[in-house]
């Protein structure tokens, strides 16, 4: 595998997780935890639905993957600052 193909796959995976996380957060806020009296009263019922549990799963794992990718990127970039130039 070339560097270019690895870079393309990694970038598409990163952008995909960001997109999924963004959509899931907005869907969760609108459908599972509505900011109204109705949302407050029915949140115990709506939060346990399969759709809300799936959105919560995407939000949780998406944020963990995005944090991990930032850690990898930061580690990779710091090697250029720390390692001596030849």
What would you note in describing this structure?
This protein has 86 residues and is mainly α. The protein has a domain at 20-77. The chain is 85% helix and 0% strand. The chain is built from three helices and no strands. The protein has helices at residues 3-32, 37-46, 50-82. α1 runs antiparallel to α3.
Write a concise keyword list for the protein shown above.
single chain; 86 residues; mainly alpha; 3 helices; 85% helix
Indicate the mean pLDDT.
88
Low-confidence stretches: none
Q: For the report, how would you describe the main beta sheet?
A: none
Task: Quickly count the helices.
Answer: 3
Could you write a compact summary of the structure shown?
This protein is 85% helix and 0% strand. It has 86 residues and is an all-alpha fold.
Note the topology.
Elements: H1 3-32, H2 37-46, H3 50-82
Helix pairs in contact: 1-3
């Amino acid at each position: 595998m070339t560097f270019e193909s690895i870079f393309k796959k990694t970038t598409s995976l990163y952008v995909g997780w960001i997109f999924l996380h963004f959509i899931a957060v907005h869907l969760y806020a609108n459908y599972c935890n509505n900011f109204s009296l109705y949302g407050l009263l029915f949140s115990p019922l709506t939060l346990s639905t399969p759709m809300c549990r799936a959105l919560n799963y995407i939000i949780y794992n998406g944020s963990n993957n995005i944090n991990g990718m930032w850690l990898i990127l930061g580690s990779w970039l710091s090697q250029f600052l720390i390692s001596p130039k030849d």
